[in-house]
# Entry
Amino acid sequence: MRTVSFIHSGLVGAQIDKVFDLLTDPARVPDWLPGCQTVKRVDGPPGKGQRWRLRMQTPFRIADLVVEVIEYAPPTGFAWAELQPRSGSKTYFKLAFAGGATEVTMKHLWAPPSLTAWLRGVWFRRRHIQHQFDGSLQSFRKLLTR
# Structure
């Protein structure tokens, strides 16, 4: 099966360390991740290997996700892998200094484990991942430039 990927980037008018701190604080994830209602730390110390439980809500359903932090490289890299319900789904955030701002690049990868999973993914695709990434960027800007 072919890996499905989406990439989106933009500038946030804030220092890179402030963006990284907002991005990696589980208590603040609902502030910037569209559709995220709550985040609870499941286990592990802050950083790589820590697990979070996210409750996501769309107009049609509520989903509980379990993710594991797979990259924690202050202040430039952060990523998580979804363990449940869509194993093989990973979201990466890369931060770069851009003058007086921070460039944020978000990349979502999904490697379907089977043909059945791929068919379900095509049918129930995250139809608005670009909108979600854009919403996250807008939230970063709003929260960090007040």
Notes: The helical segments are 16-24, 29-32, 115-123, 129-144. DSSP finds four helices and seven strands in the chain. Residues 4-144 form a domain with the Alpha-D-Glucose-1,6-Bisphosphate; Chain A, domain 4 fold (CATH 3.30.530.20). The first helix runs from residue 16 to 24.
